[in-house]
Amino acid sequence: MVAAVMSATESRGLRRRNWLTNVNAWLLLLPAIVLLATFTHYPILATLYHSFFSLGRSGPAAFVGLDNYSYMLDDDVFWQVLRNNVIFALATVPTSIALALLMAVWVDKKIAGRSFLRLAFFTPTVLPMIAVANIWLFFYTPGYGLLDQFLKMIGLSGHNWLGDPATVMTALSVMVVWKEAGFFMIFYLAALQTIPPDLKEAAAVEGAGRWYFFRRITLPLLMPTTLFVSINALINSFKLVDQLVIMTKGGPNNASSLLLYYIYEVAFTFWDTTYAATLTVTLITILAAVALTKFIYLDRRIHYQ
Amino acid sequence: MRQNGYLIETIAAWILALLWLLPLVYCLWSALHPAEYATNFDLTAPLTLENFARAWRQAPFARYYLNTVMLVTLVLAGQIVVATLAAYALARFRFVGRDVLFALVLVQLMIMPDVLIVENYRVISALNLLDTIPAIALPYMASAFGIFLLRQAFKSVPNELVDAARVEGASSFGVLWRVFVPLGKTTYIAFGLVSVSYHWNNFLWPLIVTNSVESRPLTVGLAVFGAPETGVDWSIITAATVMTMAPLLLAFLLFQRQFVQSFMRVGIR
To answer: Given a cut of 70, is residue B268 above it in pLDDT?
Structure first.
């Protein structure tokens, strides 16, 4: 009886506390939620919404169903920037990861000048892409630029690296690999330091060579890092477009344009915001797919390691 | 044999490192020498600061510096306050809708403001904020990244410390301020360094929403200054480029370890 009364008042008190906790928590989250709703959730929904409408340059915007999407599928430039983006990802992601791994293996060892090497590899990470683009633009300047001067010195002829559709993607990819490899290096470095040294000793006792050890022990142990870095690099390859504004403006003839840069152009040069919204829906879908793969596949995998 | 392999690897590593520094060294060379030495690497070439002086005179870099400093300060201050409050709620409160709200926060990790330029431009323009520094900062103020990192840090705070503070009569805010914030110090530093680097360097969004000297950050100012159609000397452009990079680069050289560790912590999550 007494116990029952006790629990009744107690639960009333608890409910009151509970109510207060709820209010407190929601108030704490309020600023974040308002900002996220305004600049992330609403824009995502608005992007989707606007992609179903006509621009309404003359007269009000009208619902056009999937017209923008069928226009997109017929748009050669859209397919070209998408293809460019895939090429850009294929050119930069594996290369920067391989280089990052090489750098990390070197810097992890007792190599002469280790901290200098680490500094040299990591420095491009902290530089603004726009400054980097300025410097590399000059490297690639035809005739006068550093690369052509070097080629002239060894008796080869110069080339308009950024002006030729055949070389522009390679030229930009080299720059991006330079900018990113050192960033990925630090993740490998962290992972390498978690490999127990006795593993190496045991392998040495067994007479395993360094290459064998690297291939059969180190590389498999680094697999989660490799997956993590690959996905981040892949996402980056859809976000990195600053360099295009300075170096090529997506040219020549869209040969170096990427999806996000095309969105920027369509929205802020041609002011076709509904088509830009349609393109953004495509980009969001790609990014969400990559991120979900990461969530579902990668996070679980690492967990079970 | 072993010795040889080691030597070859050391040499290869050094060659790669020097190659990696080459663009930066070249930029400094060109910025510090008269224009006629821009591609003429004569070690006896006279050093000069004239390129910097001319860049400084030809474009309002002082204003751009001020804008960038205001921008990164505003973003960081906003992010830290917003993320601390949100992370505290998500880590230490049990309330209705917590998981849904956390999922809504995580959406921003997938779809960053960087790709929502079209609609965010509409929002900023509807708020009548175009061409202002808050316009650049606002989309980034609630950082899912920051909330996520701080939530993790707050979750690992031992309950005994919280209880002890409560016994001493601290309120929820008191506990947050006296227990959680001090214990999250390393997370704050890591997140702060990465955030400042990111926003110091950010370009596309500021380019879109700014249109005047009064609001342009350094990166956009540099792009406007260095545009090929302006016909400015290459040496002066490199001087401006050095000015844009210098503060972060110096900070990095001074606090290398913190930078590398911060980028790693924030990257790994």
So the answer is: no
**A230 in a domain, yes or no?**
yes
Domain ranges of chain B: 2-48, 60-268
CATH code where residue A283 lies: 1.10.3720.10
CB contact under 8 A, A120 and B27: no
- Asked whether residue A43 is domain-assigned, the answer is no
Cβ B21–A125 below 8 Å, yes or no? no
What CATH number should be reported for the domain whose range is B60-268?
A: 1.10.3720.10
User: Which residue in A118, A183, A267 is closest to B263 by CB distance?
Assistant: A183
Using the beta-carbon criterion (under 8 Å), do A182 and B26 form an inter-chain contact?
A: no
Residues 6+ apart with CB under 8 A from B69: none
> CB distance from A240 to chain B under 8 Å?
no
A39/B contact by beta carbon, under 8 A: yes
A39 belongs to a structural domain = no
Q: Which of A171, A286, A291, A174 has its CA nearest to residue A238?
A: A286
The pair of structure tokens assigned to B196 is 């400042």
Q: Would an 8 Å CB–CB cutoff place A177 in contact with chain B?
A: no
Residue A139 lies in a domain: yes
What residue numbers bound the domain in which A119 lies? 76-304
What is the pLDDT at residue A20? 83
Rounded average pLDDT over A168-182: 92
How far A5 CA sits from the closest chain B CA (Å)? 26
CA geometry: angle A64, A260, B215, nearest 5 deg: 105
Residues of B in contact with A292 (CB under 8 A): 110
If you search the block for the tokens 């007792």, which residue do you land on? A110
**Distance, in angstroms, between A61 CA and closest chain B CA?**
15
**Quick one: average pLDDT of A148-173?**
83
Does residue B205 carry a pLDDT above 60?
Answer: yes
Tell me how far apart the alpha carbons of residues B6 and B118 are, in angstroms, rounded to a whole number.
53
Query: For the segment A44-64, what is each residue's pLDDT rounded down to a tens digit?
Result: 999 999 899 888 776 677 788
Tally of domains within chain A: 1
What's the gap between Cα B150 and its chain centre? 18
Q: pTM value?
A: 0.88
